[in-house]
Amino acid sequence: MSDQKKILITGGAGFIGSHVVRLFVNKYPDYQIYNLDALTYAGNLENLKDIESAENYHFIKADIVDAHQINQLFGEHRFDSVIHLAAESHVDRSITDPLAFVRTNVIGTVNLLNAFRDTWKDNFEGKLFYHISTDEVYGTLGETGLFEETTAYDPNSPYSASKASSDHFVRAYGETYGLPHVVTNCSNNYGPNQFPEKLIPLFIHNIKTNKSLPVYGDGKYTRDWLYVIDHARAIDLVFHEGKEGETYNIGGFNEWQNIELIRVLIKQMDEKLGRPAGESEKLITYVKDRPGHDRRYAIDANKIKNELGWEPSVTFEEGLSETIDWYLENEEWLQNVTSGDYQKYYEGMYAGR
Ligand code: NAD
Ligand code: DAU
Description:
The model has no long low-confidence stretch (mean pLDDT 96). The chain has helices at 15-27, 67-77, 91-96, 98-120, 158-177, 199-208, 228-241, 258-273, 302-308, 316-329, 331-337, 341-351, and strands spanning 6-10, 32-37, 57-61, 81-84, 128-134, 181-186, 188-190, 213-216, 222-227, 247-250, 255-257, 284-287. The strands form 3 sheets. It has a 7-stranded parallel β-sheet, sandwiched between helices. Strands 7-9-11 form a 3-stranded mixed β-sheet. It has a domain at 6-190 and 225-250: Rossmann fold (3-Layer(aba) Sandwich), CATH 3.40.50.720. It contains 12 helices and 12 strands. The chain binds nicotinamide-adenine-dinucleotide and 2'deoxy-thymidine-5'-diphospho-alpha-D-glucose. Residues 89-91, 134-136, 187-188, 198-199, 202, 214-216, 221, 223, 258, 290, 297 line the site of 2'deoxy-thymidine-5'-diphospho-alpha-D-glucose.
C-alpha cells in the first residue's frame, strides 16, 4: 500500500512495537524508521539493543499526549507514514486509572491524527496512518461465534473503551478529512519482551520463582493467542498490501481457556526446570475475578488470510517453548523491569485478591 520511506512507529520500545521496529529496520534498509516512545514503565530500550546503532534507526523520546511536541516533530521530520502502537495496554491498570487510558489512547491518537492531517492535507497521495488495535473492542462472546471485522463494537473495560474510541477517531478522520488509514484488531500476543504484568510472562516468572499463580475467577475465560513475531509479520503485510480504509482482524486460530493454557505452561516449564511433571500445579491459586472480565474472545482471521495470504508461522507449543526459553535466558531483563515501581504495582494489584 505504501512505498514511502520515512516511517514513524509509536510505542516502539514496548512489547509488540519493539518486534515491529526490529523487523522494519532489518528488512527495509532504505526506509528511515523513527521510533517515538515516552518510555513509560512498559517501554524499554533494552528491547532494541541489537538494532540501536543501525543507520536507518532513530529514537525519539516524546509523549503523544503533548500536542505541541508532536506537531513540532511532524513539522521537522514530515513522516510519510505512521504505524501507531503507543498505548496504555493493561486491562487491570485501566480499571485502577481510566483517565491515563483516555489521555494516551484517545487524546494521544487524536494528536497524531491532527499532526498527520495538517502535514499532508494538501496531498495525501502515498501516505498512510496505520492504527494498531485490539479484538477487545468487540466485547465478549458466548461459547460459540467469532469476532468478524463487521462485528459491532461493544467494549467492556476502560482499556477497550479507550481503544474503541481511538479506532472510531481514525475512521472518522478518514471520512471527514480523507485521511488514508488502515486498522487492524489483533488477539492476545505472547512472546519475548512482554512486560510481566500480562498472564504468560507473569506466570513464567512466578513458576520459576515458586510464587503463587493468581487465576482470576473460575479460570474458564478464553482467549485466542498469537506469537508476537507473527503479529509483526502481519503488520508488515498490511502496511504494504492492505487496502486503504479497511479493517483486518488478526488472530492465531488458537483458542485456550486460561486454566488449560496454564497447565500447558506448567508442563513445559516443569520439564525445562527439571522438576517432576505437574509439580508446579500446586502454585495455582484461584483469586477474586477481574471486574467486567470478558468471558471469551475468538477472532475470525480469514479476511487477512484469504486476501493477503497471511497465517501464523508457528504452533502455540513452539511459540510458548521459545517464549519460556527467552525468559529463562534473560533473567537480567526481567530483574530490571520488575524492580522498583513494578514491585509496588504488583503488591497493590494482588493484595486485595
Ligand atoms: P506495551 O504496553 O508493551 O507498550 C506500549 C508502549 O507505548 C511502551 O513502549 C510505552 O512506553 C509507550 N507509550 C505509552 N504511553 C505513551 C505515550 N503517552 N506516548 C508515547 N509512548 C507511549 O503494549 P503492547 O502490548 O506492545 O501493545 C502495543 C499496541 O498493540 C497497543 O496499541 C495495544 O493496544 C495493541 N495490542 C496489544 C495486544 C497484546 O496482546 N499485547 C493485542 C492486540 C493489540
Ligand atoms: O485481546 C487482546 C488484548 O490482550 C490486548 O489488547 C491487551 O493489551 C492485552 O493486555 C491482552 O488483554 P487480556 O486482558 O486478555 O490479557 P492479560 O494477560 O491481562 O489476561 C489474559 C487472561 O488471563 C484474562 O482472562 C485475565 C487472566 N489473568 C490475567 C492475569 C494478569 C489471570 O487469570 N491472572 C492474572 O494474574
